[in-house]
Specification:
Layout (H helix, E strand, L loop, with lengths): L5 E7 L18 E7 L4 E7 L7 H7 L4 E3 L5 H9 L3 E5 L6 H9 L3 E4 L10 H4 L2
Parallel strand pairs: 1-4, 4-5
Antiparallel strand pairs: 1-2, 2-3, 5-6
Length: 129
Amino acid sequence: MLKKPCRVLIPSYEPGALDSKIYPHWKDAEVFVQVEFDDSHVYEVKKHKLSSDDLVINIVKRENIAYVITYSLSIRALELLQKAGVKVLSPLEAVSTVGEAIDKFRKCNLAVVKLNKTPMSTIEELCSP
């Protein structure tokens, strides 16, 4: 159960709506769909199309995005989002549209993506005595 409305950003194909297909990679998305919702209502759906001099992280900060849902993103993008306090989520199973991703969010059926740097010394086949 969601305690308060959530604001999520999802990369998608045009037209940038709830029924739009999710774009497979964060960086090259045609548009980004911002959805504000709770357990039972969608309050806002807003499309963002990047201009040539705009960055996705600027939209995230300007719009107070708390979560992003994406299939794939670069380590740099993950670092920037985490530094901005944004939680990065990814589908555990095939999800086709923005609306389906929101349904999975409501059911807590997404994976949390984190950058976890572990010392190379933990790789036994390379660093065992």
